Amino acid sequence: MKFITVDTYAELSRKAANLIAAQILSKPECVLGLATGSTPIGTYDNLTKMYEEGDLDFSTVTSVNLDEYVGLDGSNDQSYRWFMNHHLFDRVNIDKANTSVPGGTVSDLAAEGAAYDAKIKALGGIDLQLLGIGLDGHIGFNEPDTRFIAETHEVELHPSTIEANARFFNDISEVPTKAITMGMGAIMQAKKVLLIANGPKKKEIVEKAFFGPITPEVPASILQLHPDVTVIYSIND
Ligand code: PGA
Hints:
Layout: E1 2-6, H1 9-26, E2 31-34, H2 41-52, E3 62-65, E4 67-69, H3 80-87, E5 99-100, H4 109-122, E6 128-131, E7 153-156, H5 159-165, E8 178-181, H6 184-189, E9 192-198, H7 203-211, E10 229-234
Parallel strand pairs: 1-10, 2-3, 2-6, 3-5, 6-9, 9-10
Antiparallel strand pairs: 4-8, 7-8
Helix pairs in contact: 1-2
The structure holds 2-phosphoglycolic acid.
């Protein structure tokens, strides 16, 4: 594991974007695993700037996102499809047909999960998976549990996740209580993993995840077993 500590969120965002850009430059037809949340926004801004300056071309990139809220479709501005369109896809020259987010409004979430895993497999797996980390140690929406789940699956969100995400909604009662998330299988099979964590509030969980015991109670701790993980942690927000 490579653990990089930086001072500021701006530095974290630049470094993360540089690593993603290096992936795209070295393999233009790569598969990126992408993440939502407040942490990657600066990374996506930097990638957009590189595209605008003519230094990065997304035309042959394919992306698969980690998760989606159950019940929200892509036109809902709280959905993760909307987030990705708004923060990255509509700002660069990626072909939207080559971008995937798990479907949160399908009637059969188990079938959707199986189809999502089959799609990732057919793509040849993920070259670089970007991850944030929840205050409870989740990656994607793999919440603390008694076991690690390999497949893309439906999940009940942890109360601390609902509370943390309430800041994006008018009221906590509007936060969906369920999600569909990529499981640990596709994440652990990604060739490279890049986890970004920002600020003092993430310090304790980052220490637990990367320097504590490997346990499904701290889902991100499984990454200690991945052969190519880079963690970028910024001390200040
Ligand atoms: P955040 O979320 O980037 O908004 O802190 C991270 C996560 O929950 O994965």
